[in-house]
Prior knowledge:
The complex is a heterotrimer.
Chain A: E1 2-7, H1 8-18, E2 23-26, H2 33-44, E3 51-54, H3 58-71, E4 76-79, H4 81-86, H5 88-93, E5 102-107, H6 121-124, E6 132-135, H7 139-154, E7 162-167, E8 175-180, H8 183-189, E9 207-208, H9 215-247, E10 254-257, E11 264-267, H10 272-285, E12 290-295, E13 297-299, H11 303-310, E14 315-320, H12 330-339, E15 347-352, H13 362-377, E16 385-386, H14 390-409
Parallel strand pairs in A: 2-3, 4-5, 5-7, 6-7, 11-12, 11-14, 14-15, 15-16
Antiparallel strand pairs in A: 1-8, 6-13, 10-12
Helix pairs in contact in A: 1-2, 1-7, 10-13
Chain B: H1 28-40, E1 44-48, E2 67-70, H2 76-92, E3 103-109, H3 110-116, H4 118-126, E4 131-137, H5 174-180, E5 185-190, H6 194-206, E6 210-216, H7 220-224, H8 230-239, E7 245-249, E8 252-257, H9 265-269, H10 285-303
Parallel strand pairs in B: 1-2, 1-3, 3-4, 4-6, 5-6
Antiparallel strand pairs in B: 5-7, 7-8
Helix pairs in contact in B: 1-6
Chain C: E1 2-9, H1 14-27, E2 31-37, E3 46-54, E4 69-72, E5 94-98, H2 103-110, E6 115-119, H3 133-146, H4 151-161, H5 167-183, H6 215-218, E7 239-243, H7 252-258, E8 264-266, E9 272-274, H8 284-288, E10 294-298, H9 299-307
Parallel strand pairs in C: 1-4, 4-5, 5-6
Antiparallel strand pairs in C: 1-3, 2-3, 7-10, 8-9
Helix pairs in contact in C: 1-3, 1-4, 3-5, 4-5
Amino acid sequence: xxxxxxxxNAAAAWGARLAQVDYVPAFPITPQTEIIETLARxxxxxxxxxxxxxxxxxxxxVTAAAAAAATxxxxxxxxxxxxxxxxxxxxxxxxxxxxPFVLVNVSRGLASPITLxxxxxxxxxxxxxxxxxxxxxxxxxVLDHVLLAYRIAEDSRVRLPVIVNLDGFTLxxxxxxxxxxxxxxxxxxxxxxxxxxxxxxxSKPVSQAVAVLAGSPYSYFRYxxxxxxxxxxxxxxxxxxxxxxAFGRRTGPLATYRSEDADMVFVMIGAGATKACEAADRxxxxxxxxxxxxxxxxxxxxxxxxxxxxxGKKAVAVIDQDLSMGQGGVLHAELAAALYGMPNAPMLAxxxxxxxxxxxxxxxxxxxxxxxxxxxxxxxxxxxxxLFTERELRQVRKLQAIAxxxxxxxxxxx
Amino acid sequence: xSDAIRRMKDLPSTHLLGTGTPMxxxxxxxxxxxxxxxxxxxxxxxxNAAGCMTxxxxxxxxxxxxxxLYTAMACAPAGAQGVRDALDILLxxxxxxxxxxxxxxxxxxxxxxxxxxxxxxxxxxxxNLDFLYICYDNEGYGNTGQQSSPATPHAAQTATxxxxxxxxxxxxxLFGIWAAHRPAYVATVIGAEPLDLAKxxxxxxxxxxxxxxxxxxxxxxxxDFDPAESVEIGRLAVRxxxxxxxxxxxxxxxxxxxxxxRAPVEEYLKTQGRFAHLFSPERNDALLGEIQAHIDAYWxxxxx
Amino acid sequence: MYRIRFHGRGGxxxxxxxxxxxxxxxxxxxxxxxxxxxGAERRGAPMFAYVRAARAPIQERGVITHPDLVVVADETxxxxxxxxxxxxxxADTVLLxxxxxxxxxxxxxxxxxxxxxxLPVADAITDRAxxxxxxxRCTGAAARLLGVISRAALExxxxxxxxxxxxxxxxxxxxxxxxxxxxxxxxxxxxHEGAAISARAYEAPDWTxxxxxxxxxxxxxxxxxxxxxxxxxxxxxxxxPVIDYAHCHRCVWVCSTLCPDSAIHVRADxxxxxxxxxxxxxxxxxxxxxxxxxxxVPEHEAAKIEAGGAG
Lengths: 414, 304, 311
């Protein structure tokens, strides 16, 4: 076993290298850039074979990625935040090509105002695109899920592109010990890409991604893409088992932590969820039966597994590191839909926190647990709660005061 | 396919491009495309951007005997990059026999070529992508009803320029923009001059690197003329000097045909409804003079 | 509610026809809904427009599947599957065909119990510029068949919807519309308002659970070459180019190369041959033929000659 300290970005690059990707169309953006720089170096040194091509935008990058996949090679690419949104037309277009590839997204809050640190609005904007998406909580999971993503994307029962998401800064620039699997073991788990009949060859002409001009064939192709995405859940179970046999690590659509006998459960995705696990440990020491349920895969959405994991709990708090303006937390709404009508459904609360990398300290987890259990005991559901303190508001007031002072200095009235 | 096309008689009449497409009757773009396809052959993958010709392939019908990939309006050159890179990777790693290789072709209208797709085009040329870009230029967003595009000529009426002066801008010099990138080849063609067209496609096919074939595409629907006039209007575009037939190769621009005597531009403008406001209810001599002066200045520079 | 469907081809003024009728209804105090439906296809390709009119606000939308009146502006659409002329036509429907043939012929040909009325084509249309009148003629006739639209309301509607035309074109369109309106006097009020679509007795949709199919089947990809030849674009044609082989010089590199649609092939004997299955009738070939050996013939005349074995 080769255990090394790797950042999330390095783990993503190692995933691509071990998957023996042929082609990397690339474009830089913070906090993803390190991934493509690492891969570029490996290609230049001959440690990877194939080609890395710098495109002029993420829109072109995703186009080139899908076009190369449609030609029959294994493709890896990466982006973040504004880049993912700049590519959005093609993000929604290429799943319909049914050409599989893997895109790593390093989550970062969206403009405006523009910022650098992480939240999940960027990747959640792709949730209706047809890309599958998996959220990693550790650097190890980043590497593992790049490999898993290729297996699922390329499976003839799925054939869809996959986004592997990791949180900017909290994973991208954070080093953790990562088991680097042996190249031979990876090759056994992940054989070369078989594009079947979807590729361009002079001897086998094909017209790909052609238009339809009527609702009926359109419905057919769109719904088939949905069925393939749904089918990925059972394929995932099968492949997760093979992954466990090969590498000894359990994975799957849902990660649960001390949730079986919990009264109160935090639901989170991504790296922030490990903090919820830590909080659950401390809460248990304090006599509160807390646990964590963390969906890894959001597309396909593991609704049945979530229902099973949350049935009979007293209180569930969804901590959304995202915000749908005018609605609230995206994960909360999706979970509410999944739990609707379940006879022993828990009280479900919505917490908005961690926007733009705003820290969620342990005390906030403890307080959430305490308050939520209180509401549940009274048979009430609390209104959505933003994690934002008096002290933070005072800080913002100071900033605003400075902003006004600057204007005064320019000779304008406040 | 003949080895060399010298005379009209040598033109292939193979008609590799299938009939039954939904292009308008008399489409000057389709006229150019089927001639081009006969020379390029079917060992091609056409990467297409949103435009009239997106509808060449509507499931389950395609006129192509080779391959096709629809992308989106801005990014056909990036799609070509992905296909070309993938084919190269497969060839290098011996996963693709050389005879299964394909020429990578981009096919777009002027909206993509002159406007939305210009950034991805410029970058593909920067990367020295081995591809042939075919633009069918009908001087407006034809697929949506002929609104003005960056290729619309001065004074033409469009769906967004219905006033008596027509389009206030000037047609962008895409040939010059391409040439400034110093690519392998740039040529203007028109379906109404099939011999010139075929020779240029043969030349383009023999070269590697970024290549542009810019085809003026007389458009009965968008330019408002009887479809039967499509070829005559194309010939007039050349005779009047509106559409110079030229090439850029090895750093030099060559005019293949200097119209002499050059027909007054009026003869060309009169044939199309989009210029009717220059003649009725009364002649707009100022605007007509301006258009003619522009063309005269162009050819004066050529003949210097 | 009156439910009316107009069928025609792109460029025949069908959208305008629907709007004129919609405005005429509106002038008569009806609640109205009108809209054209066309794919991204082109001039000459089948399209349709629909008009709903009622005394109460209209909640139905979209395609009319229970028409009271179907107006066919272009009889060559009859065999075109994409045109779907007979959708929802029953014995209660009135079919108005712009055609020189008799209603009996059409009833037999279409095998329908619907009331069929022919609006005789004015003259052989040899000038394609005259085509936009087709829509207004059909509207004039349709207005009379409905029996609830006055001549005055029709005129106001025509003047509103055709206000962009110059005086001469407007007059030509008004004349066409009123000639058709007058010609239909004997059939005034033949179209009856259709009832609401009942929820008591109806044909249930045969829904199916879409099975999962692998991407190699369920992606919008075409694996066969040149499948477009199965599309008979020859049906778009209103004028037919006919080669006079006695005068043809066999300079096929002209007509065969310049035909935009690849619809002129070269026979083994070196002569050009027009593929009428696909020729859209643009007449570029007739315009460029050096010895002027290609003549343009109105399609319905050419079809007649063909049927008579004289072609």
